[in-house]
Amino acid sequence: MSAHADGGVGRRLAYYRSVMRPKMTQQQLADAACVALGTIRKIERGERGVTDVTLEALAAALGVDPSRLRVDRGPVHTRVREALPALSAAIAAYDVPDVGPVRPLGELRAAVAEASRWRLAAQYTRIVRELPDLLAELARAYHGSAAHERREPAALLVTAYRAADAVAFKFGAHDLSARLVELMRWAAPDADDPLLAATVAYVRTEIFFAAHAHAPGLRTLEDAIDSAPVPSTVPAIAARGALHMRAAVIAGRARAATASATHLAEARALADHVPESVYRGTAFGPDTVRIHEVSVAVSLGDDHVDRALTAAHDWKPPAELPAERRSGFYIELARAQLWAGLADHAFESLKLARRIAPQHTREHPWVREDASTLRRLKRTDSEALTGFAEWCAAN
After folding, report:
1. What CA–CA distances, in Å, run from 341 to 247, 310, 330, 373, 380?
2. Which residue among 33, 71, 159, 163 is the one 20 to 30 A from 281 at the CA level?
3. Beta-ladder partners of 283
4. Cα(161)–Cα(177) distance, rounded to whole angstroms?
5. d(CA 126, CA 133)
6. What is the pTM (predicted TM-score) of this model?
């Protein structure tokens, strides 16, 4: 774990904190990043170095890419891609793990919960740094347990595989993503948890999105809905609602407007019976469904774009929602605004997405496409737009 001792990190940190709107105090930054106030003060004064983990936590709290604070300015996306082979190596030996230590289940549970929080916060560098060793340890815990004791190790493996898959999928490593999804499907039966199985079906949809196989993806999700537990408890309601929500989006991509509307209505009805929260690693509730109304309208395109703008009118995702979900909302909204001829609004939405989850926004293909389109539309490129396009590697 490297440490950055150059005082330039402190100067950049103080600068970005000062230009926040409204300005962020050192205490507010410390609270948001879960870093001691004294540590913030020493970093800004150049009296101490900062580890990669701390730097990335500070960047996430400020809503900027960690490379903006880093002395070497090394791009995060390059470091994440360079770390992906380590994830591949970790899962290659899923059934024959190396001999090594295994922490008690309580400690493994906490480590997996932290990885899940990183996924929801789109902190992908943390995931690729920590997950290879954690996956190997979880495999040892699973194979070292008697058959009747494998339920929790299996469930932890599924959740950890999902965190790793988030990085693989977002960074375009679709073969690795598909392999991780298959390992989730392999481990899930031993967890003996129907709600976890529904979560795996939800994540599996990524394979169909990546392959543009939207019609079979919709059929698979509808089968999963039929197999999901009866929605008689809050977790079961959320599990079924999330599947309907996902089905609505992929139906939109398949241009199946009727099916899309049906699934969205089901998701909306179920969301009315649960509080907004994260269930088995998936955000669900009234606000999340509203975000998906925008996503569905954008997926259908054409005459449905106005619906996206209407759904987002005078509304924004609450700060309590996961960062990845909130940034995704603004990315989808930007596309609708661009299609509606609202170029300036679209750029503002893209900037909001970047502020909320920089790594997620930079790697989203729509962001690069839309930034390129904005540059073409605005012949007299502003410095801000040019800088944004360069940041996300838009053509």
Report:
1. 29, 15, 16, 11, 17
2. 33
3. 278
4. 9
5. 12
6. 0.85
